[in-house]
Structures are given as structure tokens and as C-alpha cells.
């Protein structure tokens, strides 16, 4: 059977001033697929998403939906809805009204929905995002994670065929982020609709997606299943970007002194501000396993796979799953100590997320979109 492509991008290009932001993007997205645009800041992920949503027009090329050109279709006529990193909930409306918002403008067979139907749908959506009983809550008093759940419920309530998710988990802390990754994946599986997800986080992309699209400087570098992108990177950029690395949140306490995973380590990096937040990159083969009492940090082995030359272990350390490669065998469940030599600690500046919404993805965009949503006649 032939694959059914819900979205096709053909030779899409986009410039802002003299800057080529998208350079001949070609992509086919299958119906029901969880596809992720992965790449560094500024590579064109959000721009691609906005062109699919209809918020932005490409300079050249075609966007097809179910095989039909939708270049001139306005956002509210596209069966697409978007979730942003900042939840952009309507602050003056409670949870129920936020989720009901799009439904109040939806028409089925030319008729508006009755309150009973709206209420049923809101309840169904709240159950889907694990917020049963939250109808009357004030959205400004919810936690970040709960607000994001309401945003997901609101976006899904109008039954879009495609959900666009622009770094939706970036504002959540690590533990919550991991939980939400699993939940979002489950929601997508349950609903069977297409999710197009944007992230700069390789682990997030690899663990959630059916297909990963690696982008850099406005070009697609590689399209493939997570396992293929990881094992067979097409070029140096992908190899480097997807390399086997533990990437941890850290702080530079001083020159040559980094703190991460609750411990302080000597490193070879300098020139950061005191207490500057950084990314710490550690290759799985550069971690030394020592007796538990001798380690700067300790963890528990949760999986161990023999890879031919070495063992590849997943070690839980403070809610972060480290990948560690070693030629010695340690059984699953063992508690181990960990040491890392200074030259194995790579300190990177945190990437900046300025301008994600800037002046080109405003609240009013979504408001306008939501208030205009109309269901296709059944
Ligand atoms: P990030 O993860 O930082 O959001 P991204 O991969 O999503 O990055 P885009 O937001 O698509 O990148 O931006 C790609 C480039 O286009 C950037 O250099 C950005 O500054 C520029 N850009 C995007 N929108 C506009 C705009 N409306 N006007 C001018 N430049 C823009």
C-alpha cells in the first residue's frame, strides 16, 4: 500500500532580508507520524513550522496537505493547531473556558456546538491530559506543567489533523520534561494524529519520534528513524550534533571549576561568568567507574547491553539517565561511584532562545487562529 502523506513540502525557500533561512526544503510527512525537526538555534525549525501553520508565507515552493496545494489557505482553514513553549493561555478565563474557546467557534454541519457537547469534549480532553476535575481552576494559579497540559487540551479539543509543537517542553524542569515526553507520545499514539515537534534537544528527539529531520543553516541534513540517525549519521554535522554524549545542566563556579549532578569537578575550561549556567557534555566512554565510596557522584545501573567490544549501561543519577560505556561488566541494579577526569568534561555555553516568539509569533496570531477555527463540514 502506498504511504499517505498528510503534508508535503516541495522546494520551500524563505529569506529574511538577505539571510537565507530555508534553502530548498523537501519533506514528506506521513499521516499519523510523530516527526521532529531537530537542529541548533536559528536553523529554521520554527520558520518551517510557521509555514506549515500558514502564519508565514514561503518565498518559493509548495505546501501540500493531503496532496492539495494549501499555499494560499489562511491558518484557520488549515486543519492544524499549534502549541508553543510559552503556554499562551487566556489568563482571564478558567481552565474550562480555555479549552472550550475553540469549540465555541466550531461548527459541525453549519451549526454551533451545544453547551452539553462542549462540556463533554472539555471533560474528555481534561481526562486525556490527566487534569480531571480541573474545570473551574484559575489558569494563573496552575504550575507550569499543568498550564502546558491545558494548552495541549485546548489545542486538541478542536480535533486538528496535525498538531504542531514548538519546543513545548523547554520551559519545564528535567523530571517533568521527561514525564511529559512520555505522556505526549502516549497522547499521540492514542489519538493517531500527526505530531510535528520542534526541539534542539537530541535526546528528546531521539526518544519521542518516529522520524527525525536534522536541520542546520536552513537545510535538511538528514531524515530518518532515530536509530538510523544515531547509528549512521550522514555527515560531520549530524555525527557531531547527535554524537553519543551525556548533556547535563551545569554551573561554572569559577575558572576550571564546574558543578553538575550535585558535585564539583575540575575541568579545563575558563572564561565563563561566575555561576554561569552551562551545558556539560561528557562522552559515554569517558566516565570512570570507581567503588561507590570513592566516587564524586553515585548512581544505579538500570540497563546494561553488550555491544561487542564494550558494555553500554544506563545509569540513573539524580533523575538523569547517563549513558556509560565500559569494557568491565556490572550487573543491573548495582550501585556505582563515578569519577570524571578534567579533560573529559566539555563545557558549552547555553544556547539562547531569544526571539522564539519575538515579533513574528505573537499571542494575537494564536488568538486570531483560535477564534476563527471552524470544523470542516462532516
Ligand atoms: P530556535 O530554536 O532558536 O527557535 P529555529 O531553528 O526555530 O531556532 P527560526 O526561528 O526558524 O530558527 O529562525 C531562523 C532564522 O531566521 C534565524 O536567524 C532568525 O533570526 C530568522 N528569523 C526568523 N523569523 C524572522 C523574522 N520574522 N524576521 C527576521 N528574521 C527572522
- The CATH topology assignment of the largest domain is Rossmann fold
The Cα radius of gyration reads 23 Å
Please tell me the total number of domains: 2
Into which percentage range does the β-strand content fall?
Answer: 25-35%
Bound molecules: adenosine-5'-triphosphate
Which strand order spans the largest sheet, edge to edge or round the barrel?
Answer: 6-9-10-3-11-12
Terminal Cα span:
26 Å
Estimate the mean pLDDT confidence: 87
CATH class of the largest domain: Alpha Beta
Number of strands: 22
Overall structural class, as computed from helix and strand content, comes to alpha+beta
Which regions are unreliable across 5 or more consecutive residues at pLDDT < 50? 351-378
Helix segment tally: 9
Query: The biggest beta sheet, please?
Result: 6 strands, mixed
CATH superfamily of the largest domain: P-loop containing nucleotide triphosphate hydrolases
Helix fraction by DSSP (H/I, runs of at least 4): 25-40%
The gross shape turns out to be globular
Amino acid at each position: 500500500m502506498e504511504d499517505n502523506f498528510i503534508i508535503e513540502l516541495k522546494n520551500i525557500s524563505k529569506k529574511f532580508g538577505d539571510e537565507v533561512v530555508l534553502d530548498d526544503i523537501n519533506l514528506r510527512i506521513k499521516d499519523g507520524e510523530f516527526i521532529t525537526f531537530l537542529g541548533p538555534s536559528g536553523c529554521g525549525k520554527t520558520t518551517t513550522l510557521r509555514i506549515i501553520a500558514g502564519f508565514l508565507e514561503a518565498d518559493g515552493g509548495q505546501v501540500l496537505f493531503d496532496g492539495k496545494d494549501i499555499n494560499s489557505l489562511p491558518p484557520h482553514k488549515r486543519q492544524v493547531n499549534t502549541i508553543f513553549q510559552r503556554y499562551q493561555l487566556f489568563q482571564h478565563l478558567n481552565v474550562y473556558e480555555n479549552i472550550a474557546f475553540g469549540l465555541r467557534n466550531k461548527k459541525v454541519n453549519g451549526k454551533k456546538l451545544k453547551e452539553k457537547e462542549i462540556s463533554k469534549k472539555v471533560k474528555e480532553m481534561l481526562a486525556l491530559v490527566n487534569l480531571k476535575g480541573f474545570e473551574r481552576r484559575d489558569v494563573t494559579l496552575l504550575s507550569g506543567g499543568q498550564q502546558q497540559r491545558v494548552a495541549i487540551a485546548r489545542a486538541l479539543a478542536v480535533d486538528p489533523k496535525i498538531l504542531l509543537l514548538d519546543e513545548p517542553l523547554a520551559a519545564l524542569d528535567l523530571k517533568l520534561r521527561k514525564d511529559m515526553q512520555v505522556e505526549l507520545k502516549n497522547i499521540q499514539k492514542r489519538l493517531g494524529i500527526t505530531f510535528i515537534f520542534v526541539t534542539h534537544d537530541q535526546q528528546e528527539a531521539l526518544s519521542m519520534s518516529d522520524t527525525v529531520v536534522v536541520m542546520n543553516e536552513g537545510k535538511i541534513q538528514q531524515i530518518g528513524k532515530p536509530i538510523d540517525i544515531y547509528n549512521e549519521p550522514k555527515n560531520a554535522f549530524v555525527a557531531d550534533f547527535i554524537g553519543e554524549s551525556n548533556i547535563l545542566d551545569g554551573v561554572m563556579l569559577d575558572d576550571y571549576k564546574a558543578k553538575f549532578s550535585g558535585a564539583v569537578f575540575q575541568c579545563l575550561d575558563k572564561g565563563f561568568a561566575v555561576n554561569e549556567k552551562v551545558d556539560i557534555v561528557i562522552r559515554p566512554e569517558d566516565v570512570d567507574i570507581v567503588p561507590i565510596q570513592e566516587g564524586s557522584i553515585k548512581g544505579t545501573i538500570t540497563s546494561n547491553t553488550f555491544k561487542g567490544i564494550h558494555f553500554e549501561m544506563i545509569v540513573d543519577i539524580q533523575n538523569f539517565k547517563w549513558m556509560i560505556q565500559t569494557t568491565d561488566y556490572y550487573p543491573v541494579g548495582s550501585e556505582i561511584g563515578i569519577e570524571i577526569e578534567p579533560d573529559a568534561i566539555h563545557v558549552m555555553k547555553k544556547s539562547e532562545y531569544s526571539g522564539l516568539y519575538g515579533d513574528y509569533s505573537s499571542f494575537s496570531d494564536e488568538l486570531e487562529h483560535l477564534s476563527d477555527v471552524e470544523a470542516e463540514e462532516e
